[in-house]
From TrEMBL:
<dbReference type="GO" id="GO:0008465">
    <property type="term" value="F:hydroxypyruvate reductase (NADH) activity"/>
</dbReference>
<dbReference type="InterPro" id="IPR036291">
    <property type="entry name" value="NAD(P)-bd_dom_sf"/>
</dbReference>
<protein>
    <recommendedName>
        <fullName>Glyoxylate/hydroxypyruvate reductase B</fullName>
        <ecNumber>1.1.1.79</ecNumber>
        <ecNumber>1.1.1.81</ecNumber>
    </recommendedName>
</protein>
<comment type="function">
    <text>Catalyzes the NADPH-dependent reduction of glyoxylate and hydroxypyruvate into glycolate and glycerate, respectively.</text>
</comment>
<comment type="subunit">
    <text>Homodimer.</text>
</comment>
<dbReference type="GO" id="GO:0120509">
    <property type="term" value="F:hydroxypyruvate reductase (NADPH) activity"/>
</dbReference>
<keyword id="KW-0963">Cytoplasm</keyword>
<dbReference type="Pfam" id="PF00389">
    <property type="entry name" value="2-Hacid_dh"/>
</dbReference>
<dbReference type="GO" id="GO:0030267">
    <property type="term" value="F:glyoxylate reductase (NADPH) activity"/>
</dbReference>
<feature type="domain" description="D-isomer specific 2-hydroxyacid dehydrogenase catalytic">
    <location>
        <begin position="5"/>
        <end position="319"/>
    </location>
</feature>
<dbReference type="Pfam" id="PF02826">
    <property type="entry name" value="2-Hacid_dh_C"/>
</dbReference>
<feature type="active site">
    <location>
        <position position="266"/>
    </location>
</feature>
<dbReference type="InterPro" id="IPR023756">
    <property type="entry name" value="Glyo/OHPyrv_Rdtase_B"/>
</dbReference>
<dbReference type="GO" id="GO:0051287">
    <property type="term" value="F:NAD binding"/>
</dbReference>
<dbReference type="GO" id="GO:0005829">
    <property type="term" value="C:cytosol"/>
</dbReference>
<dbReference type="InterPro" id="IPR029753">
    <property type="entry name" value="D-isomer_DH_CS"/>
</dbReference>
<feature type="active site">
    <location>
        <position position="237"/>
    </location>
</feature>
Length: 323
């Protein structure tokens, strides 16, 4: 008999087949308590769990007494109670490498679209406002040769630095927990403390996971330290920023603009003040959302679960110490 797994995400047919070659798969809509109740038997027998975005907490784990591995179709895993997984020796697998270049493209998109006001002016064209040659009220600011500040120099930060350095001739500052030698030698990136970065950068790009240390790392104080011409970009996790402080900083002109792919609450409520600010580009968490990359992430997550349940945890494992 094949081991049982719970799938809480829609997979392309070929990947579902790959999963079914190895496991008896019970597919569910989500991991809400009602859903778990409805499929109690399947949850009780599942050794694997695969999906994304839903909360995986103690309450869920208590319904899954034989669970051995979880696999998320994402790089971020702040929705998992990792301590609870560790305490039960349950592996957590994620997809760190396959999305790096795509997320870096998204970051560059935010840099360019905020600086050049792409969304705003395109909307004005659609509204029929382009009736004569354009004047300064349509102009943006340059990106090339401006100073890029990267907060969080992981794989994605590196891929952004590569684009900025070679493609846009941007001097790069970075702040991270550790010095990143390759960033310094390849992209001439300069390590600095957060305050220096905030004071000197024209673009402040936040690419941090959400942890106890990063929650609300950016608040009123940080925005005040930024240049009034600075553009703030966040494509990591929303709660790393105190969103009400960001809104106030934008409203008071403490910073020039913001490009955001992530928010404290997602989907972003339609009445968010962010949506009435012309200098905000708000994207629906599309960092990795291309057909190619989402396919590759799903394939990686399927392989990760197969590997984990076969005791192969040499890569993509958040907590290999539990085996
Ligand atoms: C997306 O935000 C991810 O964590 O993969
Ligand atoms: C994500 O893969 C990162 O390390 O930034």
């Amino acid at each position: 008999m094949k081991p049982s797994v719970i799938l809480y995400k829609t997979l392309p047919d070929d990947l579902l087949q790959r999963l079914e070659d190895h496991f008896t798969v019970t597919q569910v809509k989500n991991l809400h308590p009602e859903t778990v109740e409805q499929h109690a038997e399947a949850f009780a027998h599942a050794v694997g769990l695969l999906g994304s975005s839903e909360k995986v907490d103690v309450a869920l784990l208590e319904k899954m007494p034989v669970l051995r591995a979880t696999s998320t179709v994402s790089v971020g895993y702040d929705n998992f109670d990792v301590d609870a997984l560790n305490a039960r020796n349950i592996l957590l697998m994620h997809t760190p490498t396959v999305l790096t270049e795509t997320v870096a493209d998204t970051l560059m998109t935010l840099v360019l679209s905020t600086a050049r006001r792409v969304v705003e002016v395109a909307e004005r064209v659609k509204a029929g406002e382009w009736t004569k040659s354009i004047g300064p009220d349509w102009f943006g600011v340059d990106v090339h040769h401006k100073t890029l500040g990267i907060v969080g120099m992981g794989r994605i930060g590196m891929a952004l630095a590569q684009r900025a350095h070679f493609g846009f001739n941007m001097p790069i500052l970075y702040h991270a927990r550790r010095r990143h030698e390759a960033a310094e030698t390849r992209f001439n990136a300069r390590y600095c403390d957060l305050d220096t970065l905030l004071q000197e950068a024209d673009f402040v790009c936040l690419i941090l996971p959400l942890t106890d240390e990063t929650r609300h790392l950016f608040g009123a104080e940080q925005f005040k330290k930024m240049k009034s011409s600075a553009i703030f970009i966040n494509a990591g996790r929303g709660p790393v920023v105190d969103e009400s402080a960001l809104i106030a900083a934008l409203q008071q002109g403490e910073i020039h603009a913001a490009g955001l792919d992530v928010f404290e609450k997602e989907p972003l409520p339609v009445d968010s003040p962010l949506l009435s600010l012309p200098n905000v580009v708000a994207l629906p968490h599309i960092g990795s959302a291309t057909h190619e990359t989402r396919y590759n992430m799903a394939a990686t997550a399927v392989d990760n679960l197969i590997d984990a349940l076969n005791g192969k945890v040499d890569k993509n494992c958040v907590n290999p110490q539990v085996v």
